[in-house]
Amino acid sequence: MSRIFMKGCEAIAESAVRAGCRFFSGYPITPQNEIPEYFSRRMPEVGGVFIQAESEVAAINMVYGASAGGTRSMTSSSSPGIALKSEGISYCAAARIPMVYANISRGGPGVGTIHPAQMDYLQATKASGNGGFQMMVFAPASVQEAVDLTYKAFELADRDRNPVLILSDGVIGAMMEPVELPEPVSDEEIAAIKDQKSSWACIGHALEEKRSWIQPGQWQTSEMERANRAADELYKSWEKDVMVEKYRVDDAEVILTAHGISARIAKSAVDHLRKDGFKVGLIRPITVNPFPNKAFEEIDYDKVKYILDVEMSIPAQMIHDVNAVVRERIPVRDCLRSGGNIMTRDLIIQTVKGFEEE
């Protein structure tokens, strides 16, 4: 398979096209603008549909409609744009509609800065909308991983009939790296995928046939509880899908933990600290929802002195999931940047060495 040099946002879009995405609707916002821009050029080439909507709210509801018709569909935005889409995302989850979306995160609070940040973790993993629904959330640490996880996201969305989120940031979105792109699904495969959804999709039926129907929002109380119980069983089944990278943890006395671009920087810090004689390792959640609790349960708490949570967010957000599984067996400390300031290897190294000197 040939390698090609691509920007992160464009690589996500191309991977989606190759996964069979044939509908995209979005609205401009930095730093994700290259995703809809790329789709606007690419969709006509594959017989798909691109729409620049009049707003984020319109964009997500167009995706809701296209996905309800059985078409693999996607949208993307950045931070405040995702917040505007949250009601439509909730509708998709409630109606069990498979769709994929990407958040190329920017800084906060509020509308914040257009620069890269990781301040949407809690929104992504705990409250992407109303109603208590959950999604699988992927946090790529490279352009190649963004490609692979986007492709996989469409398969999992269809499998579960549930939204899937690619949680990235402006660094991954803007950087260029060589990637190997997956083989595109064929037109025949796309048709077969859509045909498999005919039992539930709103595709139109003859009057004498039983109509497919997307469950409306005004349910009876008993139906709502039944739907919530079914969703709960779905969420519990995701344990088998958890992905995590464990790097040089076997003899580690200090464990760094981070996701996305911060984890990539932390991994480099691990190697430099090792050269200086510090036994440091890294646990990198690739799925941040569900969280890789097992990786933290397997830590040797008699050997490891503390965990250092590394994030481009102030206050820290992923640290709450780390604390929930560590349960005060050892200290959980943090190393943080925000406001568009990129995490640096030197800061991580200085933080670790500073703690060691205490």
Rg, nearest Å: 21 Å
Strand order of the largest sheet: 3-2-4-5-7-6-12
The low-confidence parts are: 207-213
Tell me the major beta sheet. 7 strands, mixed
Order of helices and strands: EHEHEHEHEHEHEHEHHEEHEEHEHEH
Q: Termini, distance in Å? A: 51 Å
Quick one: CATH class of the largest domain? Answer: Alpha Beta
* Computed structural class: alpha/beta
The proportion of residues forming helix, as a percent range, comes to 40-55%
Which CATH architecture of the largest domain is right?
3-Layer(aba) Sandwich
| CATH homology superfamily name of the largest domain | Thiamin diphosphate (ThDP)-binding fold, Pyr/PP domains
How many β strands by DSSP? 14
Query: Strand content of the residues, in percent?
Result: 15-25%
What features would you describe in this structure?
With 358 residues, this protein is of the alpha/beta class. It has 2 domains: 3-196 and 229-239, Rossmann fold (3-Layer(aba) Sandwich); 245-356, Rossmann fold (3-Layer(aba) Sandwich), CATH 3.40.50.920. It has helices at residues 8-18, 34-46, 56-68, 80-94, 121-126, 143-160, 170-174, 187-195, 221-237, 260-275, 293-297, 319-326, 345-356, and strands at residues 3-7, 23-26, 49-52, 73-77, 100-105, 136-138, 164-169, 176-180, 244-247, 254-257, 280-285, 287-289, 306-311, 332-336. The strands form 3 sheets. It has a 7-stranded mixed β-sheet, sandwiched between helices. A 5-stranded mixed β-sheet has the order 9-11-10-13-14, with helices on both faces. A two-stranded antiparallel ribbon has the order 1-8. Helix 10 packs across helix 13. The chain starts with a strand and ends with a helix. The model is unreliable at 207-213 (pLDDT under 50).
